[in-house]
Design goal:
single chain, 220 residues, alpha/beta, 5-stranded parallel β-sheet, two-stranded antiparallel ribbon, 8 helices, 48% helix, globular
Amino acid sequence: MTVILFGPPGAGKGTQAQFIVERFGIPQISTGDMLRAAVKAQTPLGLAAKSIMDAGGLVSDEIVLGLVSERISEPDCQAGFILDGFPRTTPQADALIALLDGLGKHIDHVISLEVESAEIIQRLSGRRTCPSCGKGYHVVYDAPAVAGVCDVCGASLVQRDDDREATVKNRLDVYSQQTSPLKSYFEQCGLMRCIDGNGTISDIQRQICSLLEGSTGDHP
């Protein structure tokens, strides 16, 4: 099956993507990872992307689609794959569907992990990290024995800049602006599947299993 996975920062998208990979035996495809790998390998697309990034520009949809096309043509993608971080715009979604059509493939599910903003803010703004040993904590869900102090090495815990409440709110606003048109797009295509992401990890996994295991793989 072919799955596109959406979810705001802090929704647990990475955890659930890994679960889908392990449970259903399909690879997760991250456009960011592909881009870095292509640049490192100095492929033609990677070199083109590097020249754009070095000049401070944004990599074009054409290059990203070229990377996606190359990746999904590899043998491990023949039984399906999860797309993470792509598409981000409706033109990219149009181009992706056209690309898949040309390869005799189609999107089976677009899964959106739905989590309330207040819960996301609590999840992310409560995270703390030990700058010495790297151990992570959460002030509510995984607090250290002594507030603000690492259990392992005794160093003072810190909050990353991108976990500060104002930054988290801004990230959520950007995510909403990016994904709202896409969610409407995939709803009109009959592909959008919304999963309640406010429960436990196992609760969310059960919802995903129910959805994917009940799929016929037929195009809607």
